[in-house]
Design a protein that fits this description.
alpha+beta, two-stranded antiparallel ribbon, 3 helices, elongated
Protein backbone atom coordinates (compact mmCIF):
# COMPACT_ATOMS: atom_id res chain seq x y z
CA UNK A 1 0.00 0.00 0.00
CA UNK A 2 1.33 3.44 -0.88
CA UNK A 3 1.53 5.60 2.22
CA UNK A 4 0.56 8.90 0.53
CA UNK A 5 -2.42 7.52 -1.41
CA UNK A 6 -5.83 8.65 -0.16
CA UNK A 7 -8.10 5.98 1.25
CA UNK A 8 -10.62 4.70 -1.31
CA UNK A 9 -14.19 5.41 -0.33
CA UNK A 10 -16.81 3.59 -2.42
CA UNK A 11 -19.45 6.20 -1.66
CA UNK A 12 -17.20 8.91 -3.11
CA UNK A 13 -16.97 6.95 -6.37
CA UNK A 14 -20.73 6.42 -6.51
CA UNK A 15 -21.39 10.10 -5.77
CA UNK A 16 -18.96 11.19 -8.51
CA UNK A 17 -20.48 8.75 -11.01
CA UNK A 18 -24.05 9.85 -10.27
CA UNK A 19 -23.02 13.50 -10.50
CA UNK A 20 -21.48 12.90 -13.93
CA UNK A 21 -24.57 11.03 -15.19
CA UNK A 22 -26.90 13.75 -13.90
CA UNK A 23 -24.84 16.55 -15.43
CA UNK A 24 -24.71 14.84 -18.82
CA UNK A 25 -28.45 14.10 -18.75
CA UNK A 26 -29.43 17.59 -17.65
CA UNK A 27 -27.36 19.08 -20.47
CA UNK A 28 -29.98 17.67 -22.85
CA UNK A 29 -33.10 18.16 -20.73
CA UNK A 30 -32.26 20.90 -18.25
CA UNK A 31 -35.55 22.02 -16.73
CA UNK A 32 -38.46 19.66 -16.16
CA UNK A 33 -36.54 16.72 -14.61
CA UNK A 34 -35.38 18.92 -11.74
CA UNK A 35 -38.96 19.68 -10.83
CA UNK A 36 -40.03 16.07 -11.26
CA UNK A 37 -37.23 15.01 -8.91
CA UNK A 38 -38.41 17.57 -6.36
CA UNK A 39 -42.02 16.39 -6.54
CA UNK A 40 -43.27 19.69 -7.94
CA UNK A 41 -45.59 19.45 -10.95
CA UNK A 42 -44.31 21.22 -14.06
CA UNK A 43 -45.32 21.67 -17.68
CA UNK A 44 -43.91 23.23 -20.81
CA UNK A 45 -46.43 24.98 -23.07
CA UNK A 46 -45.71 26.12 -26.67
CA UNK A 47 -46.76 29.74 -26.33
CA UNK A 48 -44.21 31.38 -28.61
CA UNK A 49 -42.98 30.62 -32.13
CA UNK A 50 -39.62 31.59 -33.58
CA UNK A 51 -38.85 33.00 -37.04
CA UNK A 52 -38.59 29.47 -38.50
CA UNK A 53 -42.09 28.60 -37.28
CA UNK A 54 -40.88 26.33 -34.48
CA UNK A 55 -42.56 26.31 -31.07
CA UNK A 56 -40.79 27.77 -28.05
CA UNK A 57 -41.97 26.24 -24.78
CA UNK A 58 -42.61 28.31 -21.68
CA UNK A 59 -42.23 26.41 -18.44
CA UNK A 60 -44.64 26.64 -15.52
CA UNK A 61 -44.23 25.04 -12.10
CA UNK A 62 -47.06 24.39 -9.66
CA UNK A 63 -47.17 23.99 -5.94
CA UNK A 64 -46.52 20.61 -4.37
CA UNK A 65 -49.40 18.26 -5.19
CA UNK A 66 -51.27 20.93 -7.18
CA UNK A 67 -51.29 19.49 -10.70
CA UNK A 68 -54.85 20.76 -11.08
CA UNK A 69 -53.63 24.37 -11.09
CA UNK A 70 -51.37 23.58 -14.05
CA UNK A 71 -54.21 21.90 -15.94
CA UNK A 72 -56.42 24.95 -15.34
CA UNK A 73 -53.64 27.27 -16.49
CA UNK A 74 -52.99 25.16 -19.61
CA UNK A 75 -56.68 25.33 -20.49
CA UNK A 76 -56.78 29.10 -20.05
CA UNK A 77 -53.64 29.56 -22.14
CA UNK A 78 -54.96 27.28 -24.89
CA UNK A 79 -58.18 29.30 -25.09
CA UNK A 80 -56.28 32.62 -25.11
CA UNK A 81 -53.56 31.56 -27.57
CA UNK A 82 -54.48 28.28 -29.30
CA UNK A 83 -51.61 26.05 -30.36
CA UNK A 84 -53.24 22.67 -31.05
CA UNK A 85 -53.67 23.40 -34.76
CA UNK A 86 -50.21 24.90 -35.23
CA UNK A 87 -47.85 22.51 -36.94
CA UNK A 88 -44.17 23.40 -37.35
CA UNK A 89 -42.69 23.05 -40.84
CA UNK A 90 -41.03 19.72 -41.54
CA UNK A 91 -37.57 19.70 -43.09
CA UNK A 92 -36.25 16.57 -44.73
Amino acid sequence: MIEDAPEFDGSTFVRAFLTMVCEETLAFIPCLPRFKASGLPAMSVPLLWNEEGLPVGIQFVGGYGDEAALFRLAGQLERAKPWAERVPPVHS
